[in-house]
Amino acid sequence: MTTPVRARAALAGLMLAASVLAAAPAFAQAGAPAADRVFDATTLNLTAYGETEVAPDEAVVTLGVQSRAPTAGEAMAQNVGQMSAVVAALRKAGIAERDIRTTNLNLAAQYSYPQDKAPVLEGYVAGNDVTVTVNDIGRVGAVIDAVTTAGANQINGIAFDLKDPSAAEDAARVAAVKALAAKAALYANASGYRVARLVNLGEQPSGTPGPVRPLMMMRANKAATPISAGTLTVRVDVTGTYELAR
After folding, report:
1. Buried b vs exposed e over 95-122: b needs ≥16 C-beta within 10 Å?
2. Number of helices and strands (H, E) in the chain?
3. Of 98, 131, 161, which one is at a domain's C-terminal end?
4. Are 200 and 59 in contact (CB under 8 A)?
């Protein structure tokens, strides 16, 4: 039977569409980027860390002045005078203006609470806190002595740090990669494989340096408050994927 011309054209179009659809998966597979292809290998995913210890080269001291007076104005005026003397002592001790930063300023009423009676206003307390960066570790004790003599009556903390931690971090990175490679070799050996190659390597976000280990006592002079500078532990964590082979 003769097929009408219009029917033959529709049938040809349907056959062409079917052949294109059949070829589409093969075309997509052939043109897929390498990153999207399945990595067909035995792999080992590991984490490791490296540490290095280094002596800190700067200290940050948080200190302040609290002043009490019957009125708010008197408390603030007294506080301004005391803190001005403290800042002057810091400058005299060699601390630059850029290394002195105000971190807290407050004024609060002080009450007493007699039993079964209304609160009684006792006066006001004004507070002013600063953080001071001391770039010479050996002078920390002398700086603390200078500010307390000048009128500071609050020492709220001291932290040791590194001006530039990059060298310590790089040393920790090298130690971390070596630890990662050693761990990969151990696992490969234990499972009857050998390490063929490192597929990828990543570094996890690093935190602050580890706690200070007080190993040494430093004094700027006989009268200075003794300060334990110790060492800082700098840590770097890494992850890696290794391809294994028989």
Report:
1. beeebeeeeeeeeeeeeeeeeeeeeeee
2. 4, 9
3. 161
4. no
Rounded-to-integer distance, Cα 159 and Cα 147, Å: 17
For the stretch 195-246, pLDDT in tens is: 999 999 999 986 555 544 443 333 334 456 788 878 999 999 999 999 999 9
Residue whose token pair is 């490192």: 198
Domain coverage including residue 241: 42-55+165-245
Q: How far is CA 66 from CA 77, 86, 96, 155, in A?
A: 11, 12, 23, 11
The end-to-end CA distance of the chain, in Å, is 66
Q: Tell me: the pLDDT tens digits for 119-136?
A: 999 999 999 999 999 999
Domain end marker among 109, 134, 161? 161
- Average pLDDT estimate for 160-166: 94
Span 14-38, mean pLDDT?
A: 42
Residues 200 and 149 in one domain: no
* Alpha-carbon Rg for the chain in angstroms: 35
What CA–CA distance (Å, rounded) separates 150 from 88? 8
Could you tell me the pTM of the whole model? Answer: 0.66
